[in-house]
Amino acid sequence: MQEEHYDKKQSIMEQKLLIYNTLTRSKELFKPLHAPNVGMYVCGPTVYGDPHLGHARPAITFDVVFRYLRHLGYKVRYVRNITDVGHLEHDADEGDDKIEKKARLEQLEPMEIAQHYTNRYHKAMEELNVLSPSIEPHATGHIIEQEELVKEILKNGYAYESNGSIYFDVVKYNTHHKYGILSGRNLTDMINNSRELAGVGEKKNQVDFALWKKAQPEHIMRWPSPWSNGFPGWHCECTAMGRKYLGNHFDIHGGGMDLIFPHHECEIAQAVASQGDQMVRYWMHNNMITINGQKMGKSLGNFITLEQFFTGKHESLEQAYSPMTIRFFILSAHYRGTVDFSNEALKAAQKGYERLMDGLGNLDRVQPSKGSQPDTQKFVHELRRRCYDAMNDDLQTPLVISALFEACHVVNLLLDHKTKISAEDLKELGDTMRLFTFDLLGLKSSKGTNNAEREKAYGKIVDMVLKMRQQAKEAKDWATSDQIRDALADAGFEVNDTKDGVTWKLNK
C-alpha cells in the first residue's frame, strides 16, 4: 500500500514528464541532453502589428512549459526571438517584408515599427502574466550569424547562388537526407504540385527556399554580404540564433502548428546541411485558435487584438475579457487541441476563473477540526499526485483545472460544515491549490489590485449606510447614528460631518 504522506521535495524530483514530439509523432519521456540544464527555443512574434489571441496561445503554452520545468528543478535557458526582418508576405520568398510594408504605409523607419510593436507585445505578455524569456534575440542583431550559416550550407554543397540571392537546394538535400520528416510531406508530391505554378524564377525548383535575398532598389532593410546587399531568409534566423545561444544540440524547439511547414521543416534542413545532424531533440507545437473553424491570423484579417479583448472594443465581442480570463480560456484546452473563439466560451472561462479564485479566497475562512473526514482526507492526499500526473502527461492543463474545481467544491463543503478537515490537511489542500493555480498555471488573482468596479461598489454601500445614519439623526435616534459611525470607523472608514454634508474616506 502506498504511503499517504510523501516527501514533497522528493516527489518533485521523481516526476516523469512525457512530451509529445512532433518529429516522432509520439509521447516521449523528457530526458535533457545535459541535465539539469535545459535549452528551449520558441519562435516569437513578427512585430508588424498588435499582438492578437493567436500570439497569446504559444506564449502561454510555453510559459507553462518553462514554469513546470523550472519547478521540477531544471535550470532552463529559454530563448524566444523577435522577428524584425526577413519574414515576407504569405511566408513566401518573393514580395514585401511584413515590417517594411507596414513602415511604408505609416511613413516610418522599419525599426520604429519593430520597436513599437515589440513594446506592445511585451505589455500584453506582462498583462497575461507570461514570464520573460532568458534571452530575447532580434533577427536584425544576428545578421553576421545568419551569413555564417549560409556560408556553411554553401560550402557543404546544399545551396546555390542565383542573381545575388542564395537558395537552399532541397532536391539535392533530399538525395542524402530526407526533406519533410517533420511535416510528413513527400518531396515528389511537393514538386509535382509546384509545377502548376508558372515558372520558378531564380530557383532551380519551386520548393527551394531563400537563405539570402538580394535587396531590390526599393527595399529599405539591407546589409552587406559576400553575395549582395540584401537580407536573410526568414528561416535562417532561428537556426542561427538557436545555435548561438543553445549550442549545436538542444532540447526543445516550440511554436505554433502553422510553423511546422515550411519554417521548422526548413530549420531542420538548414541544421543538417550545415552541421551534419539535427539540432533539436523534441519539437513541440501548439494548435491554432480558430474563429468559426478558420485559423485566426493577420494574413486572414480575422484576428482580434489582445487589447480589444481587454477593452471589449471589437464588433465580435459582447463584453471586455480580462487578461486572466484569456489565460484561463487558453489553458482550459490541451495545447495540442484546437480552441474555437466564441463569446460563450469566453464567458464560461470567466466564470471558471472566478470560481477558482473564489475557492482559493475562501480557504482562509475554513476552520480546521481535530481530524479530517475519511473521504476529505483521501481527496486531499490524492490531489497533488493527480495534478502532477496531469502535468506529466504532456501538460494536460484542463485535467489540472478539473481537479482544482473539485478542490473548490471541497472548500465549499467545509464552509457549509458538511465535512471536516484537520489543520495539517487544510494546509496541504491550500499549498497544492496555490502551487498549481499560481506558480504552474500562472494565473493570478485580480483582487487586491486597483479595481475600479470594486471601488465603485464599496462607495455605493458606504453612501447607503451614511444615508441610513442621516435618517437616524433626523429622527433624533442618536444611538443608531453613533453606532453606524463607530461601525464604519472600526472598518477603517473615517466619517466627517461638515456644513456641506457628510464626507468619508477609507484609511486602509
Summarize this structure briefly.
The protein has 508 residues and is an alpha/beta fold. It has helices at residues 8-13, 53-71, 98-106, 110-127, 143-155, 170-176, 187-194, 234-246, 260-275, 306-311, 323-331, 343-362, 374-392, 397-415, 423-440, 452-474, 478-490, and strands spanning 18-21, 26-29, 37-42, 75-80, 159-162, 165-168, 209-214, 230-232, 250-256, 280-286, 289-291, 294-295, 339-341, 493-498, 501-506.
Model description:
The chain starts with 7 loop residues before the first helix and ends with a strand. It has 17 helices and 15 strands. The protein is an alpha/beta fold. The protein is elongated and about 95 Å long. Residues 1-6 have low confidence and may be disordered. Helix content is 46%, strand content 14%. A hairpin with a 2-residue loop joins β5 (159-162) and β6 (165-168). The protein folds into 3 domains: 30-286, HUPs (Rossmann fold, 3-Layer(aba) Sandwich); 306-440, Isoleucyl-tRNA Synthetase, Domain 1 (Orthogonal Bundle), CATH 1.10.730; 452-506, no CATH class.
